Amino acid sequence: MKKILVVLFCTCAFQLVAQQEVQKRFFWGAIAGIEQHRLSVQTFTPKSTAPEILLAGAERTGTAGPVLGAFTRWQLSRDLAIQTELLFSAAQNTIRFYPDGGTETHRFLDAEIPLHFVVTNTRKNLPLRASFLIGGRVGWNFASNSSEKLNLYSGRTAADIGLGAEIRLHKYRIQPEVVYSYGLNNLHNYLNTLYDPVISSVVRDRITIRVLVWR
Predict the structure, then answer these.
(1) Closest Cα to residue 147, out of 94, 91, 191, 200?
(2) Residue range 18-27: average pLDDT?
(3) What is the pLDDT of residue 155?
(4) 63, 114, 157, 215: which could form a disulfide with 137 (CB 3.0–4.6 Å)?
(5) What is d(CA 194, CA 172) in angstroms, rounded to the nearest whole number?
(6) Residue 79: strand, helix, or coil
(7) Average pLDDT score over residue span 22-32
């Protein structure tokens, strides 16, 4: 009987410790980084379209811009966590039209909410731990880009994948990582402009180098 009571006591104590550990597995922190993006413009030339209104270039790399935000992370298990973020970024992209169509600059002031699953190797008690994330995001561009040549929708959805390393520094955690965001929705807003008949789709991809800090 004593042995049974000892086993039951140890089991209950283990469950209480596990519950306390789960309750503490909530973190929040800050994000800062820089991102580069690419505006991919897919075109086609219908027979009824005159060649003088073709769009120049299928891909245009934009100017690198800053990324700032915050995140919260829930530890689902020892190695798996779910992470939500609130990000703000600024960038711009210049597209050349020809012949004699000049250039046009599109500005992006984005607010985004990514949702990621984060896998971190915690099997060994090391100061440096490899990390992998996968998930998606939704965002909205608040910049005004009214144009007579190419108009873009403000909303954007994307699939994300990233690699990083978690570094322990006293009470803090620092995680540098690289995240690639693959645009899923067509941003081309057809408003009967001169170039709309030859534009099939516009997709915006982004790559971000960033650092997460929390304790």
Answers:
(1) 191
(2) 58
(3) 96
(4) 114
(5) 55
(6) coil
(7) 81
